Structure formats: C-alpha cells, structure tokens
Amino acid sequence: MYDSIVAGSGAAGSVLARRLAESGRKVLVLERRPHIGGNCYDEKDACGIVIHKYGPHIFHTNDEEVFAFLSRFTTWRLFGHEVVADVYGKRIPIPFNLNTLYEVYEEEAAKRLEQILIQEYGEGSRVPIMKLKENPNPQVKAIADYVYENIFLHYTMKQWGQTPEQISAEVTGRVPVLISHDNRYFQDTYQGVPEDGYTAMFARMLDHPGITVRTSDDCKAHLTFTERQTLFDGEAFTGPIVYTGAPDELFDCMYGRLPYRSLDFRFEHYDRASFQGRSVVNYTVSEAYTRITEFKYLTGQEDADGTTIVKEYPFAYTGAEGEVPYYAILNEENEALYRKYVEKTEPYGNVYLLGRLAEYKYYNIDAIVKRALEMADAIRR
Ligand code: UDP
What we know:
By secondary structure, the chain is an alpha+beta fold. Helix content is 31%, strand content 23%. It folds into 3 domains: 4-78 and 192-253 and 329-380, 3-Layer(aba) Sandwich (Rossmann fold); 83-178, no CATH class; 260-316, no CATH class. α1 (11-22) packs parallel to α12 (365-380) and α3 runs antiparallel to α4.
C-alpha cells in the first residue's frame, strides 16, 4: 500500500513527502501531534489572532529553488524583518549595525568609529561578535565589549544557560555585527511568512494523491528495528523510512538522551490595538524571557482589535511528557552521542534522518527545505 514512510509532518517531512509523491511513490506520513506543520504550525487563537504555536517563524532565503518550490503552495507576505533589543528600556536595532552605533554613541564618536569599522572590515561585511572581540584596536574592542555585554551575554545565558564563549561559535555567528546601515535581521532576498499561514502551506503540500497523512499517530507504535531489518506493523518494510524526530527516541535513548534546549511559550492576549508596536523585541539585558513577539505585525493582522504576544522562557529539555525539543546543543560531546544514534540506523540502509532534530543541527527553514528536496532526489534514484 505504501512504499515510503515519513515520520513527522514539519517542513522536513512535508517537503520530502511531496517530492517523493511527485516521483510516483506512495507515501505514508505519520505525525504524532494532532496537527501537521511541525514547529511552523500556526492557528487562530480564541481571540482570532493568528499565532505561531511553537514560536515565531520567519522564513528567509536566497535560494531560488527553495523559494520556487514553496511558492507552489503559498503566496507570501514579504517584508524586511526587523528586530530591536530592549537595553534598559532603550530600543536599539539588532543585529548591531552602523545605525545602532549612532544610537549608543554620541554623533562625533559614532562617526569616527564608523570609519574605523569600515577600514577594519570593509563596508557591508558581517563580523561575528566573537571575532570582533579579538580585534586589538582598543576602539573596536570597546564596541565589541558593548555589544557583547548588552546584546549577547545575558540573552545567551538565558537561551542556552551558557556564555557565548561556551557555546558553538556558529550560534552567535547567526547574528553578526553588520558593517552597514541595514536594520534588517536577515539579509536574504526573500523574507516573510506564507500569506495564509504555514499550516495552510503545508496542508496544500501534503494534499497529493500519493500522500496519506495520519495525525495523532506516533511512528514508534508501528516501527520495529530488529537486528537486521525494519518492520512496519510487524512486517518487513524495505522502502525508505524518513524520520524527522529526535533520533535517541527511535532507539529508546539506549545511549542516553540527546541534549536539546526547550522553550516555554507563554501567550498573552490584550484588548488593545498594540502591545509593543512591532513584531519582535529581544530582551538582551533583563527579564527571564528572551524575547516578545507580537504576532499581528508578522502575519498582517495589524487592524485586528486585540493583540496576542508570546514570551519565550528557555529551559533544558528533559524528555518529560509535554516538553518539546527545539534546539540541538552543538558541542563535541553531544555530536559524538548523536553519531552513535546515526550509526544505529546505518546497517538498515533504508532509515534516513532529516531535519533540525533528526540531524542535530541548527537549520533554518530554507536549509531544511533544501535538504529535504535533495534527500528525496537521492532516494528516488
Ligand atoms: N543572540 C543574542 N542576543 C540577541 C540575539 C541573538 O545573544 O539579541 C544569540 C543567542 O545566543 C541566540 C543566537 O544568537 O541563541 C542566535 O540567535 P537567533 O536570533 O538566530 O535565534 P533563533 O531565532 O533561532 O532562536
């Protein structure tokens, strides 16, 4: 009946299932949540405001193929995403850029420092904070110290429970200091959200005669890994099994749990037009939450009467019932543990790991889409 199984219906699973189905395969998608869309899932809350249930997701890409693929299933609400940091009540643009420089220094000093930064790094360059901190020029070092202390240190402590030095440079490198006057959070050509939401986009993607989706159905209830083969409902299954969840769970955490960071999302609704006047404010020196997102500015419901926000409280994922793993914690030890689980899958030859959780990577949506398309193409060859 089915020749391919996909566990998970987030960006990874949905894109891969569609691509396989379009090559003539019969794909069964098993989703343990009661809904599709993974962590991109959005829905209207009780007050009619569209929320991202698992935190704000802003799509951005430079990849024409990825953008074209997704655009078959949605039109877009495109915008240049901007974020500010709340630093002791003052809001400054982040990533820290030349405009931010003028916000935190007097005009004369900012002018001088702007020239120094341009000389050192070149206009338009992107400098990770950990690199900027290494600059021996005391004037550059002073800027680096400001940015480190006011943008990165406390936010990173909240988000990861570790300092910027202790976490992978890849993570803080996602938000480099910009030697430009560009206030946008991302510099990608395309950025925005699907016009009628991520859930609708993925629902259209999964709507194909070759795809069967079963929600509230955990793949673990169907899959068995014997010493030699994979079984589906007790029968040998030799087709591809693409798994997009946390790989430790597939093998009952036999080597121990893979560490992830989780978030507690606390939603609040206000019967007023606006809460913070913009989509995202990062709290980089204060508060227990990392950021507040006001959804109406992301989704285009600015004219709605009320407004809904979400505050994000990070914590260490333990695997307890109801917790959701969101971020892999990239370090050598965790990656070594991860590889042990990968090695468990290898002898079968038909088990594929795909996506943020399953590949233990800090993927953006567009990178997952790209990987899923490539994996599907490799499978159908
Ligand atoms: N970061 C920070 N302050 C900020 C924004 C980001 O310290 O205001 C650091 C923090 O360690 C964070 C990382 O940069 O985890 C990556 O930020 P990004 O906005 O990409 O995180 P995401 O939106 O994926 O949670």
